Amino acid sequence: MMSLLPRQSLLFSLLKGVNFSYFIFTVLLLSISLQANSHDLPDLSIQVKQNKPSIVGIGLFTPIQSNAPKILGTGFVVGNGKYIVTNYHVVSTELDTTIVQYFVALSGEGRLPKTHKMELIGIDPVHDLAILAIQDTLPAVSLANNELIDDGSEVFMTGFPIGAVLGLYPATHTGIVAAKAPDVNPARNADELTIKMLKRLKVPFLIYQLDITAFPGNSGSPVFNRKTGEVFAVLNKVFVSAGKEAALTNPSGISYAIPVKHVKALAKKNNITL
Fold it and tell me: Does the keyword Cell membrane belong to this entry (predicted)?
């Protein structure tokens, strides 16, 4: 018979007291738990595919100047499929009444997107939101409830980060909710505090700070909760530390988004059912 070394003998003595049935059962439970956790979130590629038809480019069309609209940002379809949500700053340009000029939504994908003439229905400059109407019907996204989601939640955003230079090709970026903070732009000194900023300091409202890469063309993009697939916020700005050019060449990875409850409030104010 082969003799055991001292360390092997000690290990054997310890193992004799182990209930191996319980040990194996525990390992199996741990394995099942890890597999379940790995499948908590739906497949991102499926979520993106489902939501792409609801994402539109927001453009300004001036036929006398160009046969193609100028892309201003991103929007998404809500309600009965005839309403578009975007940022107020995306459509805040005053239309030239001396010529034919109007806002359009661009749907589809590729070099020949479909153009939908839009009518401005309601604006909320404080929360940087706007709702526009189209004649056609497009697939609408699902909106989350009014509760703020937790910090650390995984999210994704689909939009047009650099417009549509090569055609309409929506891009998706992923990240997390980093924080919920008052919507106050930081100022380097007191001279930079505008009247609007001072008013916000007195009555601030919470917005999401996202750890996600976004670009100027992403303004108005819907931000989705990875767990539910619902839109919980509207991206409206990015943190830029070294001038506007740096927003493209050296993005900070810090973005901000307006909670969806403000979209619902604006819709209700304009008798739109979401």
Answer: no
